[in-house]
Protein backbone atom coordinates (compact mmCIF):
# COMPACT_ATOMS: atom_id res chain seq x y z
CA UNK A 1 0.00 0.00 0.00
CA UNK A 2 0.92 3.67 -0.02
CA UNK A 3 3.36 4.86 2.61
CA UNK A 4 2.14 7.52 5.08
CA UNK A 5 2.65 11.04 3.77
CA UNK A 6 2.25 12.92 7.04
CA UNK A 7 4.31 13.04 10.20
CA UNK A 8 2.67 9.97 11.74
CA UNK A 9 3.86 6.46 10.87
CA UNK A 10 2.30 3.04 10.62
CA UNK A 11 2.70 0.96 13.76
CA UNK A 12 2.15 -2.51 15.16
CA UNK A 13 1.07 -3.65 18.61
CA UNK A 14 2.29 -7.03 19.82
CA UNK A 15 0.58 -9.02 22.55
CA UNK A 16 1.16 -12.47 23.98
CA UNK A 17 4.93 -12.71 24.38
CA UNK A 18 8.36 -11.69 23.18
CA UNK A 19 8.41 -11.03 19.44
CA UNK A 20 11.12 -9.97 17.03
CA UNK A 21 10.07 -7.13 14.71
CA UNK A 22 12.25 -6.73 11.62
CA UNK A 23 11.66 -3.97 9.04
CA UNK A 24 13.29 -4.22 5.62
CA UNK A 25 13.55 -1.62 2.89
CA UNK A 26 13.23 -2.51 -0.77
CA UNK A 27 16.21 -4.69 -1.64
CA UNK A 28 16.50 -6.18 1.86
CA UNK A 29 18.34 -3.38 3.70
CA UNK A 30 17.65 -3.56 7.44
CA UNK A 31 15.86 -0.47 8.73
CA UNK A 32 14.94 -1.62 12.24
CA UNK A 33 15.40 -4.86 14.16
CA UNK A 34 14.25 -5.18 17.75
CA UNK A 35 12.87 -7.56 20.34
CA UNK A 36 9.48 -6.45 21.70
CA UNK A 37 8.38 -7.69 25.13
CA UNK A 38 4.73 -6.70 25.78
CA UNK A 39 5.14 -6.40 29.57
CA UNK A 40 8.09 -4.07 29.07
CA UNK A 41 7.33 -2.32 25.78
CA UNK A 42 3.81 -0.95 26.07
CA UNK A 43 4.04 1.60 23.27
CA UNK A 44 3.21 0.61 19.68
CA UNK A 45 6.23 -0.10 17.48
CA UNK A 46 6.52 2.66 14.86
CA UNK A 47 7.50 1.32 11.45
CA UNK A 48 10.04 3.29 9.39
CA UNK A 49 8.54 5.17 6.48
CA UNK A 50 10.72 3.34 3.95
CA UNK A 51 9.73 -0.10 5.26
CA UNK A 52 8.75 -2.36 2.39
CA UNK A 53 8.46 -5.61 4.35
CA UNK A 54 7.82 -6.30 8.05
CA UNK A 55 8.81 -9.67 9.52
CA UNK A 56 7.36 -10.75 12.88
CA UNK A 57 8.95 -13.70 14.68
CA UNK A 58 7.54 -15.09 17.90
CA UNK A 59 10.27 -16.06 20.40
CA UNK A 60 9.48 -19.14 22.47
CA UNK A 61 10.69 -20.09 25.92
CA UNK A 62 12.87 -23.06 24.91
CA UNK A 63 16.00 -21.10 23.97
CA UNK A 64 17.98 -22.62 26.84
CA UNK A 65 18.15 -26.03 25.17
CA UNK A 66 20.29 -24.71 22.28
CA UNK A 67 23.27 -22.42 21.78
CA UNK A 68 23.34 -18.78 22.82
CA UNK A 69 25.61 -17.10 20.25
CA UNK A 70 24.04 -14.82 17.63
CA UNK A 71 24.90 -15.38 13.97
CA UNK A 72 25.04 -18.25 11.52
CA UNK A 73 27.28 -21.07 10.26
CA UNK A 74 27.79 -22.87 6.95
CA UNK A 75 25.21 -25.51 6.09
CA UNK A 76 22.61 -24.10 8.48
CA UNK A 77 19.00 -23.70 7.28
CA UNK A 78 17.62 -20.18 7.73
CA UNK A 79 14.20 -18.63 7.04
CA UNK A 80 14.38 -16.79 3.71
CA UNK A 81 12.55 -13.43 3.55
CA UNK A 82 13.32 -12.35 -0.03
CA UNK A 83 15.88 -10.07 -1.71
CA UNK A 84 18.71 -12.46 -0.83
CA UNK A 85 18.04 -11.97 2.90
CA UNK A 86 17.63 -14.58 5.62
CA UNK A 87 16.91 -14.57 9.34
CA UNK A 88 19.57 -15.80 11.72
CA UNK A 89 19.51 -15.84 15.49
CA UNK A 90 19.99 -12.24 16.60
CA UNK A 91 21.03 -11.20 13.08
CA UNK A 92 20.00 -10.79 9.47
CA UNK A 93 22.14 -12.10 6.62
CA UNK A 94 22.19 -10.15 3.34
CA UNK A 95 23.98 -11.00 0.11
CA UNK A 96 25.22 -8.94 -2.80
CA UNK A 97 26.39 -10.10 -6.22
CA UNK A 98 24.41 -13.32 -6.31
CA UNK A 99 20.96 -14.60 -7.13
CA UNK A 100 18.99 -16.96 -4.95
CA UNK A 101 17.10 -19.28 -7.28
CA UNK A 102 13.50 -20.22 -6.56
CA UNK A 103 12.38 -23.79 -6.24
CA UNK A 104 9.09 -25.56 -5.60
CA UNK A 105 9.47 -25.04 -1.83
CA UNK A 106 10.74 -21.47 -1.85
CA UNK A 107 9.84 -18.28 -3.71
CA UNK A 108 9.78 -15.04 -1.70
CA UNK A 109 9.79 -17.06 1.50
CA UNK A 110 10.78 -20.48 2.80
CA UNK A 111 13.98 -22.12 4.03
CA UNK A 112 17.43 -21.50 2.61
CA UNK A 113 20.80 -23.16 3.18
CA UNK A 114 23.56 -20.75 4.15
CA UNK A 115 25.80 -22.54 1.64
CA UNK A 116 23.91 -20.59 -1.04
CA UNK A 117 24.48 -17.32 0.81
CA UNK A 118 28.19 -17.93 1.38
CA UNK A 119 28.88 -18.09 -2.37
CA UNK A 120 27.94 -14.44 -2.86
CA UNK A 121 30.59 -11.85 -3.68
CA UNK A 122 29.63 -9.95 -0.52
CA UNK A 123 27.90 -11.20 2.62
CA UNK A 124 26.60 -8.75 5.23
CA UNK A 125 25.62 -9.88 8.74
CA UNK A 126 23.57 -7.25 10.60
CA UNK A 127 23.22 -7.90 14.34
CA UNK A 128 20.10 -7.04 16.30
CA UNK A 129 21.90 -6.00 19.50
CA UNK A 130 25.21 -4.32 20.24
CA UNK A 131 28.25 -6.61 20.04
CA UNK A 132 31.68 -6.50 21.64
CA UNK A 133 33.19 -9.51 19.90
CA UNK A 134 32.72 -10.93 16.44
CA UNK A 135 34.14 -14.02 14.77
CA UNK A 136 34.56 -14.82 11.09
CA UNK A 137 34.84 -18.48 10.19
CA UNK A 138 36.68 -19.48 7.00
CA UNK A 139 37.06 -23.00 5.61
CA UNK A 140 40.19 -23.80 3.57
CA UNK A 141 39.26 -27.14 2.05
CA UNK A 142 41.80 -27.02 -0.79
CA UNK A 143 44.74 -25.46 1.03
CA UNK A 144 44.95 -22.10 -0.72
CA UNK A 145 45.08 -19.89 2.42
CA UNK A 146 41.43 -18.87 2.06
CA UNK A 147 41.57 -16.61 5.12
CA UNK A 148 44.06 -14.36 3.35
CA UNK A 149 41.67 -13.95 0.39
CA UNK A 150 38.74 -12.79 2.53
CA UNK A 151 38.47 -9.16 3.66
CA UNK A 152 36.31 -7.74 6.44
CA UNK A 153 34.95 -4.28 7.24
CA UNK A 154 32.50 -3.01 9.84
CA UNK A 155 29.41 -0.80 9.71
CA UNK A 156 28.10 0.92 12.87
CA UNK A 157 31.05 -0.62 14.68
CA UNK A 158 34.82 -0.33 14.85
CA UNK A 159 37.73 -2.43 16.01
CA UNK A 160 39.15 -1.64 19.41
CA UNK A 161 42.67 -0.23 19.82
CA UNK A 162 45.59 -1.39 21.91
CA UNK A 163 47.76 0.73 24.23
CA UNK A 164 49.70 2.33 21.38
CA UNK A 165 46.59 3.22 19.36
CA UNK A 166 46.80 0.41 16.80
CA UNK A 167 43.95 -1.96 16.02
CA UNK A 168 44.01 -5.10 18.10
CA UNK A 169 44.92 -8.11 15.94
CA UNK A 170 42.37 -10.95 15.88
CA UNK A 171 42.69 -14.08 17.95
CA UNK A 172 43.02 -17.20 15.81
CA UNK A 173 41.48 -20.61 16.44
CA UNK A 174 42.31 -23.47 14.09
CA UNK A 175 40.17 -26.58 13.80
CA UNK A 176 41.41 -28.81 10.99
CA UNK A 177 40.89 -26.86 7.74
CA UNK A 178 38.78 -24.27 9.57
CA UNK A 179 40.15 -20.93 10.75
CA UNK A 180 38.20 -18.78 13.23
CA UNK A 181 39.23 -15.11 13.42
CA UNK A 182 37.94 -13.42 16.60
CA UNK A 183 37.93 -9.60 16.75
CA UNK A 184 37.34 -7.19 19.60
CA UNK A 185 34.97 -4.43 18.43
CA UNK A 186 32.96 -1.51 19.75
CA UNK A 187 29.42 -0.77 18.58
CA UNK A 188 28.95 2.80 17.36
CA UNK A 189 25.49 2.71 15.73
CA UNK A 190 22.07 1.07 15.84
CA UNK A 191 22.86 -1.72 13.36
CA UNK A 192 26.35 -3.17 13.89
CA UNK A 193 27.25 -5.07 10.73
CA UNK A 194 30.06 -7.26 9.45
CA UNK A 195 30.73 -7.07 5.72
CA UNK A 196 32.79 -9.94 4.31
CA UNK A 197 34.08 -9.65 0.74
CA UNK A 198 35.94 -12.05 -1.50
CA UNK A 199 33.99 -15.11 -0.42
CA UNK A 200 32.58 -16.02 -3.83
CA UNK A 201 34.21 -19.48 -3.79
CA UNK A 202 32.29 -20.50 -0.69
CA UNK A 203 35.16 -20.28 1.80
CA UNK A 204 33.05 -18.27 4.26
CA UNK A 205 31.61 -20.67 6.83
CA UNK A 206 29.92 -18.33 9.28
CA UNK A 207 29.81 -15.05 11.18
CA UNK A 208 28.90 -14.78 14.87
CA UNK A 209 28.86 -12.04 17.48
CA UNK A 210 28.37 -11.66 21.22
CA UNK A 211 28.33 -9.02 23.93
CA UNK A 212 31.10 -10.84 25.83
CA UNK A 213 34.88 -10.69 25.59
CA UNK A 214 37.17 -12.30 23.03
CA UNK A 215 38.36 -14.89 25.51
CA UNK A 216 34.80 -15.84 26.48
CA UNK A 217 33.74 -16.40 22.87
CA UNK A 218 36.93 -18.33 22.13
CA UNK A 219 36.23 -20.57 25.10
CA UNK A 220 32.70 -21.36 23.93
CA UNK A 221 33.78 -22.14 20.36
CA UNK A 222 36.71 -24.28 21.49
CA UNK A 223 34.59 -26.23 23.98
CA UNK A 224 31.33 -27.01 22.16
CA UNK A 225 32.14 -26.15 18.56
CA UNK A 226 30.63 -23.60 16.21
CA UNK A 227 27.46 -25.46 15.26
CA UNK A 228 26.46 -26.15 18.87
CA UNK A 229 27.32 -22.63 20.04
CA UNK A 230 25.08 -20.78 17.53
CA UNK A 231 21.47 -20.30 18.60
CA UNK A 232 18.69 -21.50 16.26
CA UNK A 233 16.95 -18.85 14.14
CA UNK A 234 13.51 -19.81 15.45
CA UNK A 235 12.88 -20.71 19.09
CA UNK A 236 9.85 -22.87 19.82
CA UNK A 237 7.53 -22.94 22.78
CA UNK A 238 3.89 -22.69 23.78
CA UNK A 239 1.95 -19.49 23.38
CA UNK A 240 0.12 -17.28 20.94
CA UNK A 241 0.82 -13.84 19.49
CA UNK A 242 -1.73 -11.16 18.70
CA UNK A 243 -0.59 -8.56 16.15
CA UNK A 244 -2.51 -5.35 15.47
CA UNK A 245 -1.45 -3.20 12.54
CA UNK A 246 -2.35 0.51 12.72
CA UNK A 247 -2.30 2.63 9.58
CA UNK A 248 -1.09 6.19 10.00
CA UNK A 249 -3.59 9.00 9.73
CA UNK A 250 -2.97 10.30 6.25
CA UNK A 251 -2.32 14.04 6.16
CA UNK A 252 -2.61 15.86 2.87
CA UNK A 253 0.46 17.66 1.59
CA UNK A 254 -0.90 21.07 0.51
CA UNK A 255 2.23 21.86 -1.47
CA UNK A 256 0.95 19.52 -4.11
CA UNK A 257 -2.42 19.92 -5.83
CA UNK A 258 -5.00 17.35 -4.95
CA UNK A 259 -7.75 16.09 -7.19
CA UNK A 260 -10.16 18.70 -5.83
CA UNK A 261 -7.73 21.56 -6.32
CA UNK A 262 -7.05 20.89 -9.97
CA UNK A 263 -9.11 23.25 -12.11
CA UNK A 264 -10.70 21.44 -14.90
CA UNK A 265 -10.83 23.07 -18.33
CA UNK A 266 -14.31 23.61 -19.76
CA UNK A 267 -15.30 20.99 -22.17
CA UNK A 268 -15.10 22.02 -25.78
CA UNK A 269 -18.33 22.20 -27.70
CA UNK A 270 -18.74 19.44 -30.05
CA UNK A 271 -19.89 20.62 -33.46
CA UNK A 272 -22.92 19.01 -34.96
CA UNK A 273 -22.08 15.91 -36.75
CA UNK A 274 -22.22 16.40 -40.45
CA UNK A 275 -24.33 14.02 -42.31
CA UNK A 276 -22.36 12.28 -44.92
CA UNK A 277 -23.55 13.31 -48.37
CA UNK A 278 -25.12 10.47 -50.18
CA UNK A 279 -23.24 9.80 -53.29
CA UNK A 280 -25.33 9.37 -56.36
CA UNK A 281 -24.69 6.10 -57.93
CA UNK A 282 -25.12 6.19 -61.67
CA UNK A 283 -26.60 2.98 -62.76
CA UNK A 284 -24.82 1.78 -65.76
CA UNK A 285 -27.01 0.41 -68.43
CA UNK A 286 -26.13 -2.98 -69.47
CA UNK A 287 -26.32 -3.26 -73.24
CA UNK A 288 -27.72 -6.56 -74.17
CA UNK A 289 -25.54 -8.05 -76.72
CA UNK A 290 -27.35 -9.53 -79.64
CA UNK A 291 -26.53 -13.09 -80.22
CA UNK A 292 -26.24 -13.82 -83.90
CA UNK A 293 -27.53 -17.22 -84.56
CA UNK A 294 -25.32 -18.93 -86.90
CA UNK A 295 -27.06 -20.88 -89.58
CA UNK A 296 -26.07 -24.41 -89.61
CA UNK A 297 -25.99 -25.80 -93.09
CA UNK A 298 -27.22 -29.27 -93.01
CA UNK A 299 -25.11 -31.41 -95.03
CA UNK A 300 -26.96 -33.80 -97.26
CA UNK A 301 -25.93 -37.27 -96.90
CA UNK A 302 -25.80 -38.90 -100.29
CA UNK A 303 -26.94 -42.37 -100.09
CA UNK A 304 -24.62 -44.49 -101.93
CA UNK A 305 -26.18 -46.99 -104.13
CA UNK A 306 -24.99 -50.34 -103.38
CA UNK A 307 -24.64 -52.39 -106.54
CA UNK A 308 -25.98 -55.73 -106.03
CA UNK A 309 -24.04 -58.19 -107.77
CA UNK A 310 -26.26 -60.95 -108.96
CA UNK A 311 -26.47 -63.49 -111.48
CA UNK A 312 -28.07 -62.68 -114.77
CA UNK A 313 -31.33 -64.01 -115.99
CA UNK A 314 -31.25 -67.43 -117.06
Q: Residue share in helices?
A: under 10%
How do the strands line up in the largest sheet?
10-7-8-9-11-17-13
The proportion of strand residues reads: 25-35%
Q: Rg to the nearest angstrom?
A: 43 Å
* H/E topology pattern: EEEEEEEEEEHEEEEEEEEHHE
User: Which descriptor suits the 3D outline?
Assistant: globular
Structural class: mainly beta
Q: Count the strands?
A: 19
Q: Please summarize the sheet with the most strands.
A: 7 strands, antiparallel
Low-confidence spans: pLDDT under 50, at least 5 residues? Answer: 251-255, 258-263, 285-314
Rounded average pLDDT: 80
Keywords:
314 residues; mainly beta; globular
Chart the SSEs and their pairings.
Layout: E1 11-15, E2 19-24, E3 30-36, E4 45-46, E5 53-58, E6 70-73, E7 77-82, E8 85-88, E9 91-96, E10 110-113, H1 114-117, E11 122-127, E12 133-139, E13 151-155, E14 157-159, E15 171-175, E16 178-187, E17 193-197, E18 204-210, H2 214-224, H3 226-229, E19 242-246
Antiparallel strand pairs: 1-4, 1-19, 2-3, 2-5, 6-18, 7-8, 7-10, 8-9, 9-11, 11-17, 12-16, 12-18, 13-17, 14-16, 15-16
Written description of the protein model:
This protein starts with 10 loop residues before the first strand and ends in a 68-residue tail after the last strand. It has a seven-stranded antiparallel beta sheet with strand order 10-7-8-9-11-17-13. Strands 6, 12, 14, 15, 16 and 18 form a six-stranded antiparallel beta sheet that branches. Strands 4-1-19 form a three-stranded antiparallel beta sheet, with no helix packed on it. It has three helices and 19 strands. The protein is mainly beta. The C terminus is likely disordered. The radius of gyration is 43 Å and the shape is globular. The longest helix has 11 residues.
